[in-house]
């Protein structure tokens, strides 16, 4: 190999490494544009008032985009399936069951008077604790079978939805209206202190994510390859699942369930990242999530001036995308 060939080869490697960075720069440039438009469009007051009024909502959108996207990528990494998301494990169904159960037990008036801090803490602990117990049982007592975990998650999700449907039939019309309002994701009525607490948890989680991003690259290779490379597979998967539970519980208890957002942004990140390494996938899925949520909210509220909730539109588009993925796999 001549020196010119070596120079050309090194240039190709350098270009290949720069492509994911360029793609990230484009996506985050688009995300920054969406943020700027969200803050500036139809601004009828000064920047100080606008930031105070729209800033909390923007932080909520950023938090949900990040947590849902990262949790979905992590879950698909350890399950090796790009159709599965944490919602398939019954997370959203458990949240809906909790809301219907609280309204049924305490009544609509008492439900509206519950402390948001106690409610948020209780819901987060229940959701994280339930899944950690499930993981503990399946991985330690059932031979670490990840496919069994997914199957049990599907069954539990169906059970939670059936119980919630039964409770809904026993609610009076006013309580049922309150329940419907509680199960649709809302980015407008988030408590500032809960948002700050959630952001602190996300920052700590992010430090762990980006420190061990190479571990997730190895887990993506499969159980046998990961063990052969010296990775403690069971402990790593359990820790990853616990992290997924925390991230998903944070977003769900803060704003409500957004069923297909994770599926949508995770699959778009695989296509647009230009690399399978998690050090590129994590910022890519977060950027795409910001574009979808902040850009969608900007178009919906400040351009079209619709009063509809963004989560309904995302679930509609994500549902179509989910069907397209299933049909695509069946045609292969």
Topology (SSEs and partners):
Blueprint lengths: L2 H38 L6 H33 L11 H23 L2 H26 L4 H24 L3 H11 L8 H20 L1 H7 L3 H6 L4 H23 L5 H13 L4 H26 L6 H22 L1
Helix pairs in contact: 1-2, 1-12, 2-7, 2-10, 2-11, 2-12, 3-5, 3-6, 4-10, 7-10, 11-12
What does this structure look like?
- With 332 residues, the chain is mainly alpha-helical.
- The chain is 82% helix and 0% strand.
- The chain has one domain (57-331): Orthogonal Bundle (ABC transporter involved in vitamin B12 uptake, BtuC).
- It is built from 13 helices and no strands.
- Helix 2 (47-79) packs across helix 7.
- The longest helix has 38 residues, at 3-40.
- The model is unreliable at 3-16 (pLDDT under 50).
- Keywords: Cell membrane, Membrane, Transmembrane, Transmembrane helix, Transport.
- Pfam families: FecCD (PF01032).
Keywords:
single chain, 332 residues, mainly alpha, ABC transporter involved in vitamin B12 uptake, BtuC, globular, cell membrane
* Dominant shape: globular
Taken in chain order, the helices and strands follow as HHHHHHHHHHHHH
Helix content: over 70%
* Largest sheet geometry: none
N-C termini distance: 41 Å
The CATH H-level homologous superfamily: ABC transporter involved in vitamin B12 uptake, BtuC
Please name the CATH architecture. Orthogonal Bundle
Domain count: the total is 1
**Percent range for β-strand residues:** under 5%
How many runs of DSSP E, i.e. beta strands? 0
What is the CATH class designation? Mainly Alpha
Q: Uncertain segments of ≥5 residues (pLDDT<50)? A: 3-16
Question: Which topology does CATH recognise?
Answer: ABC transporter involved in vitamin B12 uptake, BtuC
SS class: mainly alpha
What's the alpha carbon Rg, rounded to whole Å?
21 Å
Kindly report the average pLDDT value. Answer: 76
Please count the helical segments: 13
Family: Belongs to the binding-protein-dependent transport system permease family. FecCD subfamily.
Pfam families: FecCD (PF01032)
Protein name: Enterobactin ABC transporter permease
Membrane topology: Multi-pass membrane protein
């Amino acid at each position: 190999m001549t020196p010119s060939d070596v120079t050309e080869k090194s240039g190709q490697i350098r270009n290949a490494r720069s492509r994911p960075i360029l793609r990230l720069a484009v996506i985050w440039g688009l995300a920054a544009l969406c943020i700027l438009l969200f803050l500036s469009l139809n601004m009828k007051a000064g920047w100080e008032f606008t930031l105070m009024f729209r800033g909390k909502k923007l932080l909520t959108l950023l938090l949900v985009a990040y947590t849902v996207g990262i949790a979905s990528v992590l879950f698909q990494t350890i399950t090796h399936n790009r159709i599965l998301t944490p919602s398939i494990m019954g997370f959203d169904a458990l949240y809906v069951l909790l809301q219907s159960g609280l309204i049924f037990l305490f009544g609509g008036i008492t439900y509206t008077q519950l402390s948001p801090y106690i409610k948020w803490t209780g819901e987060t602990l229940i959701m994280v604790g339930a899944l950690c117990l499930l993981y503990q049982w399946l991985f330690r007592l059932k031979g670490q079978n990840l496919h069994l975990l997914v199957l049990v998650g599907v069954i539990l999700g169906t059970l939670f939805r059936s119980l919630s449907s039964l409770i809904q039939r026993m609610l009076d019309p006013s309580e049922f209206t309150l329940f419907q309002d509680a199960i649709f994701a809302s980015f407008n009525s988030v408590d500032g202190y809960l948002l700050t607490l959630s952001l602190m948890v996300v920052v700590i989680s992010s430090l762990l994510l980006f420190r061990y991003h190479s571990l997730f690259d190895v887990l993506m290779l499969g159980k046998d390859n990961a063990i052969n490379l010296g990775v403690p597979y069971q402990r790593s998967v359990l820790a990853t699942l616990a992290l997924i539970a925390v991230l998903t519980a944070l977003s769900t208890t803060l704003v409500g369930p957004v069923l297909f957002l994770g599926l949508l942004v995770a699959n778009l990140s695989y296509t647009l990242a230009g690399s399978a390494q998690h050090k590129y996938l994590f910022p890519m899925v977060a950027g795409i999530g910001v574009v979808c949520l902040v850009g969608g909210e900007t178009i919906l509220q400040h351009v079209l001036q619709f009063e509809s909730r963004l989560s309904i539109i995302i679930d509609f588009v994500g549902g179509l995308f989910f069907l397209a993925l299933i049909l695509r796999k069946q045609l292969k």
